[in-house]
TrEMBL record:
InterPro entries: PFD_alpha_archaea (IPR011599), Prefoldin (IPR009053), Prefoldin_subunit_alpha (IPR004127). This is Prefoldin subunit 5. Residues 8-42, 110-137 form a coiled coil. Gene3D superfamilies: 1.10.287.370. Pfam families: Prefoldin (PF02996). One of its GO terms (biological process) is protein folding. Keywords: Chaperone, Coiled coil.
Length: 154
């Protein structure tokens, strides 16, 4: 059976409990920020792929071009079929697609990641607001305790 969730007012927590909640929130925020950075990197990769697909043109069939093997390694080559490209669809699988299909595939990936980045950005912003609130509350309680008064309760 699922346990019913219990709501606790953070203002009722003591300094040690507030510190622990702040630590957990900080860990969540770090994880979300790392995820955000990874999504932005993936988005940049797909945008680069889209740009590369758009650079492949039928008039390049007779010209020597630089073919990317990795992000930093290119070799000279000639296109045998400039109307088709090989697309990495993930986990080591590659599919032959037309340039238009490949461009649509990468554009869809960029858009999908953009929506996830936007959602994650909102979540990070809310977590930061919670973190600021907790930090201020913690400082108030510490200050009230050091002045010998009550711990912020009336």
């Amino acid at each position: 059976m699922a346990q019913p969730q219990q709501t606790v007012n953070v203002a009722d927590l003591d300094i040690a409990q507030l510190s622990e909640v702040r630590k957990q929130l900080e860990e969540e925020l770090n994880h979300l920020t790392n995820s955000f950075a990874q999504l932005k990197q993936a988005q940049a990769k797909f945008k680069a792929c889209l740009e590369n697909v758009n650079e492949v043109k039928p008039e390049h069939k007779t010209k020597t071009i630089l073919v990317p093997l990795t992000n930093s390694l290119y070799v000279p080559g000639k296109l045998s079929d400039p109307e088709h490209v090989i697309v990495d669809i993930g986990t080591g699988y590659y599919v032959r697609k037309t340039r238009a299909q490949a461009a649509k595939h990468y554009a869809n990936k960029v858009e999908y990641i953009r929506t996830n980045v936007d959602t994650l950005e909102e979540t990070i912003q809310k977590k930061r607001e919670n973190m600021n609130y907790l930090t201020n509350l913690l400082q108030q309680k510490i200050q009230a305790e050091t002045q010998g008064g009550p711990t912020g309760r009336s």
